[in-house]
Automatic annotation (TrEMBL):
The keyword Oxidoreductase does not apply. Transmembrane segments: none annotated. Keywords: DNA damage, DNA repair, Glycosidase, Hydrolase. The lineage of its organism: Bacteria, Bacillati, Actinomycetota, Actinomycetes, Kitasatosporales. InterPro entries: MUG/TDG, Uracil-DNA_glycosylase-like, Uracil-DNA_glycosylase-like_sf. It is an enzyme of class 3 (hydrolase). Pfam families: UDG. One of its GO terms (molecular function) is hydrolase activity, acting on glycosyl bonds. It comes from Streptomyces ortus. Residues 18-179 form the Uracil-DNA glycosylase-like domain. Gene3D superfamilies: Uracil-DNA glycosylase-like domain (3.40.470.10). Its EC number is 3.2.2.28. This is G/U mismatch-specific DNA glycosylase.
Length: 186
């Protein structure tokens, strides 16, 4: 992995990172917003302590652990990545309530256009803020966007110490099973 100086990471603040998306995905994973390492590399969940890629593999979504630089391979598995808020920041707490709400509106429109079977928001706090759903908890949600079902997953950031990679993989695995069951339903 490329090492960046603090100045190079700071220069990535506010950058946009292209989505990894296609029409009709099985699951569209949605992060909170790109971190500075993600913005500097152009690869989602690129910070070394982020557990997204290991958990994705441990839960059975991918046959091997992908590197952030291999993110485009997700499309071959019917998976994609986007974010609630597009602009990069050092921490999610730098985002305003209005950015979350606007991000939720834009995300709903994106989901309507792309029609994934599941939208998986990684971070219950981000989901609550984006969709004004204070009672949301980890797991399947009542809310849908057209035919797209919604699942809230734990945030894979290394800062989320409440969840281990193993317990996150269990929750990601529940979504994978639901996505497979959904795919097999007429």
């Amino acid at each position: 992995m490329t090492r960046f100086t603090p100045a190079e990471l700071e220069a990535a603040r506010g950058r946009l990172v292209p989505d990894v998306v296609a029409d009709g995905l099985q699951v569209l994973f949605c992060g909170i917003n790109p971190g500075l390492m993600t913005a500097a590399t152009g690869h989602h969940f690129a910070r070394p302590g982020n557990r997204f890629w290991p958990v994705l593999h441990l839960s059975g979504f991918t046959p091997r652990q992908l590197k952030p630089s291999e993110q485009d391979e997700l499309l071959s598995y019917g998976l994609g990545i986007t974010n609630v808020v597009a602009r990069a920041s050092a921490r999610a707490d730098e985002l305003s309530a209005e950015e979350y709400r606007e991000g939720g509106r834009l995300l709903a429109a994106k989901v309507a256009r792309l029609r994934p079977r599941w939208l998986a928001v990684v971070g219950v706090t981000a989901y609550r803020a984006a969709f004004d759903d204070r009672g949301a908890a980890i797991g399947a949600q009542e809310r849908t966007f057209g035919a797209t079902r919604v699942w809230v997953l734990p945030n894979p950031s290394g800062l989320n110490a409440h969840w281990t990679a193993a317990t996150m993989a269990e929750e990601f695995g529940r979504l994978r099973e639901a996505a497979q069951d959904f795919r097999n339903t007429p």
